[in-house]
Amino acid sequence: MALKIAVLVAGSWGTALSRVLADNGHTVALWTRNAGQADEINRNRTNEKYLPGADLPAAITATTDMAEALDGAAAVLVVAPSSAMRDVARLAKPHLHNDSLVIHATKGFEIDSLKRMSTVLSEELGRPEGAIVVLSGPSHAEEVVKRLPTTIVVAAQDVACAQAAQDLFMNGEYFRVYTNPDHIGVETAGAIKNIIALGAGLSDGLGFGDNARAALITRGLAEIARLGAAMGANPLTFAGIAGVGDLIATCTSKHSRNWRAGSLLAQGVPASEVQDRIGMVVEGVRTTNAAHALAREYNVEMPIMAQLYAVLFEGLSPDRAVGALMGRVKTHEIEEIKEKWIQG
């Protein structure tokens, strides 16, 4: 059945997911604050700043009017940057129907409160957190909009909500969707993997090669799982699509803004200038700040994150950060995994 879906906002990921929804026969109201961007989408069927070369179907209509976007919408997909999530939710609240399904696809934490995005949406929209669906997984917008094969996860404690989101996005030709009840694990994995991708880009930028990148991915996964388990996630989530799957995609692709940000840091670009160079939000930088505070709050050891925090916010040089990681006290891998991941 064709439905109207509201998508907030019109960045690269929101636009790519709008294409999936349109391909599935739905009409999409794509909300943006930028009148020029809305006009470009409606007139030219393009969104050149965020997805150069993409041709958008007529079923996607852009608007700057939140009431218009949400009027009659069976579901709302929020893809605002983590820093704007609360503000966008507040704008949406007066126009959101009580029975509309709420989904978000943002990978990050709120910096001041350290809250996950589903918690922020729950507070602002007055919905139970367990009914808010998290969409995550290895999914570069540049590939999704070209209809290249992609697999993602939709997670919610309320199984019916997750299945409803699965039905909206499942496309037998190129977009496969799994469900998962562990929204905490899926959100945590999606946010923290951006930090590890910064490290992978930094390592590649320094010319350290495949061995170093593989070690960063593997040890980074251990850090993600350690923090996630402490926050109440199911450790098995991190072995799946939203965990190791997303981590591999983000750490090995030049589509990744976080990888590119790390590469720029390795080239000597100051952290304060990296996001301006890329031209879009780099969630990993903000998330590193949040993860640093979360690691202290939950008393979780995250050495890769700690060194990246020092590079980004304390002026540590990238090569010294790598030296600090390599010179850590020796330990036993399996015993560490059992103690700090599976049991902790």
From TrEMBL:
Glycerol-3-phosphate dehydrogenase NAD-dependent N-terminal domain spans which residues? 4-160
Annotated binding of sn-glycerol 3-phosphate, by residue: 107, 137, 139, 193, 246, 256-258
Q: Which Pfam families match?
A: NAD_Gly3P_dh_C (PF07479), NAD_Gly3P_dh_N (PF01210)
Q: Which residues form the Glycerol-3-phosphate dehydrogenase NAD-dependent C-terminal domain?
A: 182-322
Q: What pathway does this protein act in?
A: Membrane lipid metabolism; glycerophospholipid metabolism
Q: What is its EC class?
A: oxidoreductase
What GO molecular function annotation could you give as one example from this UniProt entry? Answer: glycerol-3-phosphate dehydrogenase [NAD(P)+] activity
- Residues annotated as catalytic: 193
Q: What is its main location?
A: cytoplasm
Per its record, the protein catalyses: sn-glycerol 3-phosphate + NADP(+) = dihydroxyacetone phosphate + NADPH + H(+); sn-glycerol 3-phosphate + NAD(+) = dihydroxyacetone phosphate + NADH + H(+)
Is Nucleotide-binding given among the entry's keywords? yes
Outline what the protein does: Catalyzes the reduction of the glycolytic intermediate dihydroxyacetone phosphate (DHAP) to sn-glycerol 3-phosphate (G3P), the key precursor for phospholipid synthesis.
Family under the similarity heading = Belongs to the NAD-dependent glycerol-3-phosphate dehydrogenase family.
User: PANTHER family, alphabetically?
Assistant: GLYCEROL-3-PHOSPHATE DEHYDROGENASE (PTHR11728), GLYCEROL-3-PHOSPHATE DEHYDROGENASE [NAD(+)] 2, CHLOROPLASTIC (PTHR11728:SF1)
State what protein this is by name: Glycerol-3-phosphate dehydrogenase [NAD(P)+]
Tell me the lineage of the source organism: Bacteria, Bacillati, Bacillota, Bacilli, Bacillales
Q: Which gene encodes it?
A: gpsA
